[in-house]
Amino acid sequence: CLATLIIMLVGDTYTLINYVSFINYLCYGVTIIGLIVSRWKKPKIFRPIKVNLLIPITYLAFWAFLLIFSLYSEPVVCGVGLIIILTGVPVFFLGVYWRNKPKCVNRLIESMTCWGQKLCFVVYPQCGSAEEE
Where are the transmembrane segments (predicted)? Predict the structure, then answer.
C-alpha cells in the first residue's frame, strides 16, 4: 500500500494502472491454479458451484499466454508489479507468521488495525485483543 501511494504521488495514473493490472492478472492465475489443485487433491469436499475442469484449464492457458506476452513486451512494468507484491512479504511475516511477538508489537499491530478500521468506517464485531479471549 505504501509503495502504491509513493508511485501514485511520483508517477502518472496510466503507469499505476499498468502495475495494478499486472498484479491482478497474476493473482487471477494463482487463484485458478489453486482451484485446480484443490479439485485434484480434495475432490470430495462440498462445493456450492462446480464446473467442468476444462473451463479453468482453458482460462489458465490463455492467462499464461497473456502473462508471458506481458513479461516479454513490458518487463519493467511487470518487474515493478512484482516488487509491489513482494513489499507485502515483510508485513506477512511480522503480522501473521511470527507467532511469539512481544506485547509491544501486538499492541502496535492492534492499534494500527483499529485505526485503519476507524479510518475506513469498518465495524468489527469485537474490539479487544486476542489475548483476552
Answer: 16-37, 49-73, 79-98
